[in-house]
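Hi Prof. W.,

I finally got the Pectin acetylesterase prediction working! I wasn't sure whether to trim anything, so I left the full sequence exactly as given:
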Amino acid sequence: KNLPSLCTSKLPAGMCLFPQNEVKQIQTPLFILNAAYDSWQVRNILVPGGSDPRWRSCKHDIKQCSAKQLKILQGFRDHFLEAIEAQGDSPTRGLFINSCFAHCQSEIQEIWFAPGSPVLGDKVNTLALFSCLNFVCIQVF
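And this is what came out:
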């Protein structure tokens, strides 16, 4: 009833709840700031609690992941990026996607400015992000 008719006329209503289908209906400028995968996504979406005990260590510390688990994480990331790319280019949309495993890392200043924090060109995350806010920058790292 409250879902966009542009979506429900093309897809079953339940599919219109997924971001990749909803984003296409947004008319206002949109800037996506998201991790391609992070600890919350891994613990709650990819491998929810109790689903596979072999993931217990990996879910809490990416350094504990096996080669097979890292390959699965990479596939999860690739699937996310494919969904983002399927949205197409737009002068009113931009994005800043990284692969920082810390959830809510955009809210924690210590993570953005920490020694060893990822850089984009010669800029730390925060400065690179603000450079992107004019919808020109599309970076994935």
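Helices lie at 5-8, 19-22, 39-46, 56-60, 67-85, 109-113, 125-132. Does that look reasonable to you?

Thanks,
D.
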